[in-house]
Amino acid sequence: MTRYPKAGKGAQWTARELAAVPAAWKGDTLSDGGGLSGEVRVAADGRVSVRWKFAFRWDGKVQWYQCGTWPGVELAEVRRNRNAARELVAQGVHPTQAKEAERIERMQAVEAALAKAQAEQQERLTVHEMFSAWLADGVNRRDGNHELQRTYAKDIQPHLGALELRALTEAHIRAMLKPALAAGKVRKAQVLLLNVRQALGWAEKRKPWRALLLEGNPADLITEDSITPPDHKAERDRVLSPAELWELAQVLERSSATYAAMPAGNKLHAPRPVKPETQHALWIALGTICRIGELLQARWEHVDLQAGTWFIPEENVKGRRGKRQALMVYLSPFVQRHFEQLHALTGASPWCFPSRGEGGTPEHGPVCSNSISKQVADRQAMFSQRGQPLGKRRNDNTLVLAQGKNGKWTPHDLRRTGATMMQSLGIPLETIDRCQNHVLSGSKVRRHYLHHDYAEEKAKAWRMLGERLEIILAGGANIVPLPRRRA
Fold first, then answer.
1. CATH classification at residue 139
2. Residue 151 CB coordination number (10 Å)
3. Residues 223 and 246 in one domain
4. Sign of CA dihedral 288, 290, 293, 294
């Protein structure tokens, strides 16, 4: 049914009249004149509304243009919408299509604004955001990027992280390297530069980062030579003399005996000696010329004390992916004795060198690969460039050898020392390389076809080294090198 206002047909409805429309008129049509009519609607809660539409002819047919629903849209606004639609029809423009075109135009304007904001945001992407993406998707190191993440958080992010990537320059990177260089940590500075260069090299090839590096990788402008002091040695060549090895054994034995002999009440505040596990690790590393990190990851399931062997699986070996190779170490009596004594200490754990939690409880994993290096360095404080001692760490010179005349020594120097001893004993260089598990260079064809495992040669070399160490550690500080002889 079509209903009209009180003023009659052709008159317009007032807001008061609309407010008085009863729910019983649901579905009826209210005529407002000028082609505008409204359908009465009733909601579930009984509220009445009127949906207004404008009738017009288009291509010989009656069509409708929605003008709004009262009371959400006031009557004056409904009539303005009707008037605008009527003007469009008079101009030959379909009002509904015009409304859709306007909606599309507004949507496009919003999309353009969002795209512009996104582009501006991408232009402001920071070095930290780039590094985070690289650490997540661009690099996959053996430790799950743990050390890389630690290094980034400690040494790179505080200097470069907040910078916009497009603003990063060579000067920023050099400033980031200065603290390490000022502390004399040249190798650390070189590693930091390498990490930044690798991350930026990855970003140069990928969106959205490459657009921010149009002028290239700023780290490529810095060479290692330009940040390395002229007197810096790229490689350590420290070899411990027989006298120093004897001195080391005496220091370790004497400090352990002195501590053990102290009354129980006095031990709490007394300097503790190097842990027995660490002492065994040092002698095993020397007697097998293995890498200290490989030793600290050893599991007892790979040590056969009856057969006198220690198997180093490929995943524990240092090197690039695809270049690593497992190694079977044949234990000399010298090394086997230390493994047996170590087993008495840690044999209950799967790990030869298990980590310790709060209160000394065993943890599910080996000790940190740097733990022994730190223990040795902390006891050579005279060579440290720290401003002040680190908390809960030793700070003495108990492991300084030969009064420091030959400089600081590290666990890795033991590997070099043992290899040098093998050389002095006349052991062929190729056998020494195989004992050190070096990937041998040379003809690819030879590496492909020649697969002799050198087990006997390596076992003899390790045995000869062990015998030499036994003599040195029993012979006193005045021992001289043995005459060179053939293996």
1. 1.10.150.130
2. 16
3. no
4. negative
The token pair that represents 74 in the structure block: 């006031």
DSSP state of 351: B
Q: Return the closest-CA partner of residue 334 out of 275, 282, 284, 276.
A: 284
Estimate the crossing angle of helix 170-182 against helix 186-204, to 10 degrees.
Answer: 160
Q: List, in order, residues 6 or more apart from 344 with CB less than 8 Å away.
A: none
Give me 93's structure tokens: 């423009």
- With tokens 């949507």, the residue in question is 107
Q: Is residue 100 part of a domain?
A: no
The DSSP call for residue 399 is T
Q: How many CB atoms lie within 10 A of CB 190?
A: 18
Q: Decide if 65 contacts 96 (C-beta within 8 A).
A: yes
Q: Which helix (H) or strand (E) holds 29?
A: strand 29-33
Computed from CA positions of residues 427, 429, 431, 434, in that sequence, does the dihedral angle turn out positive or negative? positive
- Radius of gyration, CA atoms only, the chain: 41
Please give the structure tokens belonging to residue 357. 């939690």
What the block records as the tokens of 233 is 């040695």
Q: Which of 294, 268, 295 is closest to 279 using CA atoms? A: 295
Q: Model confidence over 37-47: pLDDT tens digits?
A: 999 999 999 99
Does this model's pTM top 0.70? My answer is: no
User: Whole-angstrom Cα distance, residue 282 to residue 244?
Assistant: 14
- Mean pLDDT over each residue of the chain, to the nearest integer: 87
Which phi and psi (to 5°) does residue 62 adopt? -80, 130
- The pLDDT tens digits for 306-323 are 999 999 998 888 766 656
Q: Which domain range does residue 145 map to?
A: 127-227
Dist. CA 14–CA 5, nearest whole Å: 8
Instruction: Please count the structural domains in the chain.
Output: 3
pLDDT tens-digit map of 389-405: 676 778 889 999 999 99
Which contiguous run of DSSP H or E holds residue 172? helix 170-182
**Cβ–Cβ under 8 Å, residues 31 and 2:** yes
Does residue 329 lie within any of the structural domains?
A: yes
